[in-house]
Write a structure and sequence with these properties.
The structure is a homodimer. Chain A is α/β, with parallel strands linked by helices. Chain A has 12 helices and 12 strands. The longest helix of chain A is centred in the N-terminal third of the chain and has 16 residues. The first copy, chain A, binds a DNA duplex through helix 2 and helix 4.
Chain lengths: 349, 349
DNA sequence: CTGAAAGCGCTTACAG
DNA sequence: CTGAAAGCGCTTACAG
């Protein structure tokens, strides 16, 4: 051992020769085929380890028509300018990568902004991967439906939609939006805005929860206070400051993501508006940085890493031909400083 | 066209039959082999498009021993607990993914925390990918040197080290640390701390720049003020608050990353220490969120997306057998609120 | 300019 | 329990 590494063996044939068996037997032995005697299996595997032989995965993938590759496709809306640099994506990716590694699959990352999802049919994801995970639906729900006719199975992270033919994994967006809004109402806020692009199904559901919570208190959502704030920081900032100049006053805001919330808080600060005293802010996702902003962000936690695991289990289920159903994950309100006056959550005006 | 998609063609043989040529000719035509007549080439390609034929990439990769896959390996130090959720990684990944897509390569993401890099020799990255990009050296510089003996070429994002046998791409860490520190000195700070793990080569170089800047002003770095703050948020917070309780006072801090800086600021705030009034803070990286924290973070900008491009160009250069040299990218100090009293950058005590 | 043939490294019926 | 043989879909010398 030590410095001395045995001459490595390059092919199954060489390994077979070394073991004094046929190529077929060597192949079966390596794959733990029960057809093979325990003794032969052990000998072949020992030899393989000793000579650090590892199967040629290209050849294997070719022969088996199985690559052990799962593609991850981020659905970015060009319009809403959502960037992959939203930490939400990275945390999700981390969860997916971990779960995939445990199952001995690799992750093929496809990142090109996708305007026409149908174009993917001829792309790498559909050709090389055994299955695909779409992160988000963008505004391409119909195209996703159409892709179910392809051979490569896929699952989608997103929000509820009608006439859905694909497997969906998502958070409890309605519940999350509802909890965030009710929290602000309980804190005495009455003029509550919503920041986010409601053409996105996830955000639409959060907005529905927001509207429902207002309705329960006999309040009507003011359409002027539902603002299509893009995910992207600079844009969010522009839109926010314009709103503060023109729109009627508001004292609370439910944001469609933590990044939007942080942009809003930063903008408010620049304009001399205090958070939470003048405006209480709630984010969405509970990204790692949310607890370290100043003020620390109240937000709706999605267990992102666990979501990654569920996505992996679901897509591998499809790959293996199992029955797979939609999954809805719990969401949970995490109360921090951005929504509560430091002295306690009172409700004067 | 429209709804009507022609029956798709599954193999090169079928396409060849359709075109009335041999499989060999069809292959050459698709690959723009100049040996083939323009007329035949055009006909075959038209037919391919019409029947939405796309080459079987598994077979092609197998035959050519080339996968058009580049692996990205994140070197996480278990000790320092650096998480992939540092936005720096995602932004880098975005840059790499974009550049790779332009060159018609795919990205294979390998995420498992790497303690023993040599173990990668038998892993997917070395077997399936045409080349590898390592993000960070961790503390495994020697292992990386040893990996140069493998067939798969790779490049490394990191900091300067001795006896280096691999291609290195990195920022101007010494210059960045120097600029950050001089900025604090110019703002009148005298007791300046450094937060970061100096066993990491990039951070070591930043620390050297920090020490050099102090020396230029006749100041000696106080070893007690160089603290191995882990990258991870909760840990950073612990360490910081412990330092504030026990160590001698300081009025400025140069942080090895923006995430560390944000954790520090958050901790300071919780302890009633004002930033920048009591302690001025400088981060590193200029992650997207840095400009939206409160106070907005002064930091050393690394052009992360461009770095991604350079890494891709370098590794593809190696794949193609070109001469490739190390690259050092510019860094630039970005002054925001976390280091300057709002009334202006004066220097009292 | 085109085609017939060999072969990349595996796995799997099929036969023994 | 093991082996000989076929074949996955491509590309590329080689011959014409």
């Amino acid at each position: 051992m030590a410095k001395e590494r045995k001459k490595t063996v390059a092919s199954l044939q060489e390994l077979a020769d070394l073991a004094g068996v046929s190529r077929a037997t060597a192949s079966r032995a390596l794959n733990d085929n029960p057809m093979i005697s325990e003794k032969t299996r052990a000998r072949v595997q020992a030899l393989a380890a000793e000579h650090s032989f590892s199967i040629n995965r290209q050849a294997r993938a070719f022969r088996l028509r199985r690559s052990n590759l799962i593609a991850v496709v981020f659905m970015l809306d060009v319009k809403s300018d959502q960037h992959m640099s939203d930490p939400f994506f990275l945390e999700m990716l981390g969860g997916i990568a971990d779960a995939l590694a445990e199952r001995d699959y690799d992750l093929l990352l496809t990142h090109a902004p996708v305007t026409d999802v149908l174009g993917l049919r001829n792309g790498r994801a559909f050709q090389q991967a055994d299955g695909i995970i779409f992160i988000g639906q963008g505004e391409q729900h119909d195209a996703l439906n159409e892709l179910t006719e392809e051979d490569t199975p896929f699952v989608v992270w997103g929000g509820p939609v009608g006439e859905k033919r694909y497997i969906l994994v998502g958070g409890d967006n309605h519940g999350g939006g509802h909890a965030a809004t009710r929290h602000l109402l309980d804190a005495g806020r009455r003029r509550i805005a919503f920041f986010g692009n409601t053409r996105n199904p996830e955000i639409a559901a959060r907005h529905a929860g927001y509207a429902a919570a207002l309705a329960e208190r006999g309040l009507e959502p003011d359409p002027e206070l539902t603002v299509d704030v893009p995910f992207d920081m600079p844009h969010a900032r522009d839109v926010t400051s314009r709103l503060l100049e023109t729109a009627r006053q508001f004292d609370g805001v439910v944001c469609a993501s933590d990044v939007i919330a942080l942009a809003a808080i930063s903008t408010f600060a620049a304009l001399g508006v205090r958070v939470p005293d003048d405006i209480a802010v709630v984010g969405y996702d509970d990204v790692a940085l949310a607890s370290y902003s100043s003020p620390a962000l109240t937000t709706v936690r999605q267990n992102i890493r666990w979501a990654g695991r569920v996505l992996v289990e679901s897509v591998l289920g499809l790959v293996n031909g199992d029955d797979v159903t939609d999954t809805q994950l719990q969401s949970e309100l995490v109360v921090r400083d951005s929504s509560m006056r430091r002295t306690g959550g009172s409700a004067p005006e």
